[in-house]
Amino acid sequence: MFPISMNKTGLIMTTVILVGAYFTLSVASPLSMHEETATHCDKTLEDQNLPDRKDCARYFRCVYGRMVPKECPEKMLFNSAIGNCDLYYNVECVQRLEELEAPEDDLTEAIESLTGRPFVKPSKTPRPTSSIASETSIERNSFTGETSTLKFVYFPHESDQSAYYKIENGAKILVHCEAGKVFSFDLEICARPWSV
């Protein structure tokens, strides 16, 4: 063995490194709160997102060999091609959700009378079922029409371009876009005015 000479600074740095390594190894992992729902994943998949086979709006993040459940924001689904959440119309989701199929007596007439435009029923592409709202302010109103089994239906406000209505489980909800954004009827999201 070679003799090691160490000055005071070297001793302090070595101590800091050893103490840091000890705390890194001994501190409880933040995954402990997800232990009951997490499953193991190969460490080669570390920090990668993996699709949930049962729900297109959910996915798993591989963290320290564990699959941590995550959920995409509203109107987004997990896109395996990019390994992240994406707008629902960009995602090919094979999952069939019965709750997304509208009955014959739907809200088409009510929507058309409020918007003054023909209403095209949404495609059968599943949409996220998250109730997380990314908008800044939401005001709930009762809707006096027939209930729909569609999870979400969106249509513009009568006079305010930065607001729209969201029909969720038969309830009419007034939603305001973030400052500087307007509602895009075609994209069904709030966007910059020049992109609509």
TrEMBL record:
<dbReference type="InterPro" id="IPR036508">
    <property type="entry name" value="Chitin-bd_dom_sf"/>
</dbReference>
<keyword id="KW-0677">Repeat</keyword>
<keyword id="KW-0147">Chitin-binding</keyword>
<feature type="domain" description="Chitin-binding type-2">
    <location>
        <begin position="38"/>
        <end position="95"/>
    </location>
</feature>
<keyword id="KW-0732">Signal</keyword>
<dbReference type="GO" id="GO:0005576">
    <property type="term" value="C:extracellular region"/>
</dbReference>
<dbReference type="Pfam" id="PF01607">
    <property type="entry name" value="CBM_14"/>
</dbReference>
<keyword id="KW-0325">Glycoprotein</keyword>
<dbReference type="GO" id="GO:0008061">
    <property type="term" value="F:chitin binding"/>
</dbReference>
<dbReference type="InterPro" id="IPR002557">
    <property type="entry name" value="Chitin-bd_dom"/>
</dbReference>
<dbReference type="InterPro" id="IPR051940">
    <property type="entry name" value="Chitin_bind-dev_reg"/>
</dbReference>
<keyword id="KW-1015">Disulfide bond</keyword>
<protein>
    <recommendedName>
        <fullName>Chitin-binding type-2 domain-containing protein</fullName>
    </recommendedName>
</protein>
